[in-house]
Amino acid sequence: VRSRDDxxxxxxxxxxxxxxVDIEIDTELDMGASVPLAWLGPGYEGDYISVSRPGExxxxxxxxxxxxxPMRLLMPPEPGPYEVRYVMALGSTVLETLDIEVLPVGAxxxxxxxxxxxxxxxxxxxxxxxxxDYISIARPGETGDExxxxxxxxxxxxxxxxxxxxxYELRYVMNQDETVLAAQPLEIVDV
Length: 191
Hints:
By secondary structure, the chain is an all-beta fold. It has strands spanning 22-24, 28-30, 34-40, 48-52, 61-64, 71-74, 80-88, 93-103, 108-110, 114-116, 120-126, 134-138, 147-150, 157-160, 166-174, 179-189. Helices cover 0% and strands 48% of the residues.
């Protein structure tokens, strides 16, 4: 095509052939988990594999195919039915889908119901222990935390109590979307 007048100077017929695409992943997965996934596909620049809500455009989480196969894909922070999709970057074309079910996960906290202001509160916990999950102390009904300690510190761990006395909550927080998996009342008392 000549640029000055868009005249076609030469043509050559080409045939576009379909690409083979396959996704291998468990079909029941825990919410918030980073799970292994194997794939076969063109792996074009910008292609990605996503987890999305059925019938909706876009995605909750995605990993580029340049990460190779197998790769890891982060599951959504809410349970329910989802689709894993191979998406070709060109035109955001979905080449393959696989239905999955994201299962709920829970957590439990074991700690005293009262703590002195500024003290170290020992907390034992059960939960998924995903990277960057944490145990926090926060005001009831509020987002944000007064203090926290990452679950990567193990169980039990210690969390520093706030300096201001009052009613608080001890929380297990999944870092993805700040999802609270467990909470219990905590009273901070003056020393």
